[in-house]
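U., I forgot to send this yesterday:
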Amino acid sequence: MRSKIFTRLLGLFLLLLVFQAAAMEFVFIPLIAGKVLELPPGKSVLLFGNEILWSGLIALAVALSLAVWVASRFSARLERVIVFARKLAEGDLNARLLHTEEEVLSTPEAALNQAAERLDASFAEIESRRQELAAMLDSMQEAVVAITAEGLVRWSNAVMQRIAGTQIHAGRPLVLSVRDPELLACVRTALETREVRFGRASLLAPGRIFEINAVPMQSGGALAVLHDVTRIEAAEKSRREFIANVSHELRTPLTSIQGYVETLIEDPQPPKETAREFLGIILKNATRMNRITEDLLALASVESPDYKLALQPTRASALVQDAIDSLGGVVLDSGVALESSGAPDSLVLADSDAMNQVFGNLIENALKYGKIGKRIRVGARLLESEVEFSVKDFGPGIASEHLDRIFERFYRVDKARSRESGGTGLGLAIVKHIVLAHGGRVWVESELGHGAAFHFTLPLVPVAQQSPTPAV
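Result:
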């Protein structure tokens, strides 16, 4: 570019010299030559100087005009370059300079346009990667929030926005966006010490627990990642409670057995009646331990991911009648009547052996707690897409505060009566898991003084799968 501008300026200078020489040769010299011969020697010199002065002034005027014209063109081009640069600075990467190959600044303008195109492509790639990163972070299960060095929210993903609600958005102080002191403390410490900080947040969302990982960033801010560990905590709590309950349930009969065995050992020849009584108690507690073990194995089986059901189209009325026939004798021995309230012949998908276990646990539970009602009623009714089965007793009923927890493992409404009757506290939990494995629902309805009714549903067999001779 410099050589091109220098060449043009040199050309203009030579053009001015040629113009001045031509003016002197063809205009001023002929005029002076005629007048010099007519004037005295002194005046001829003065005339010659005046003519030279005027010729110089004319050449200067022409040179100035050409200089102004050239400068105006350069100025206009430079103004366009400045406007172009301002547009780039304001973020308009689509701005371009118009130029032709004949213009002096065409080469730098072309370079500037090329630079703008590269910037536009680079920013487009950066924006594309930013959107990909944002989509990736939004798809995470963890909540993520970026904070500036001043404590302002720079960015947050969709999970964090769902947790914090409308309070969190870019540019708002984090301390005004979330109210969990542990999260704020972790972020503040990460910003101040420039070290990774860990914590646990339990006040960010009701009933949920988060593990916090606050990491300082090179830009001076920090990044906080929150992992929801609510289910893990609940599972761990359930595991601890399960172990504690199993230990307690097994310790009671073991202690009793140990005590009576030690008594028999200390007295080698006890009275026969005493020995028979002690052995009866030992047998009772051993039987109870055996039942606990069997129920634990059954519960572990139905809770296992490998638990499989042999589902067959079965008539609802057949399931109810099988339950009454199988357990009628046991119930009659206790002085309680087991009766049917009717059931439809609709086909349901069921595992007959599993259903016998469900009805057995429900009827046994009704016998223990509703014995004073002297009767137990088993029945079923047809719903829109399922059949609802029920086992109802007419005993004292269950208080409302127990209804939501009655299907939990080892949960008992009356612990003293349950231990006296030999219950393990696992029967209803087994019922729940078997019904859920069938794709049904289970619940209890009760009112104090009016007995309790346990309900569960089984899905109907689709019409396309119904066989002319279904299994019963």
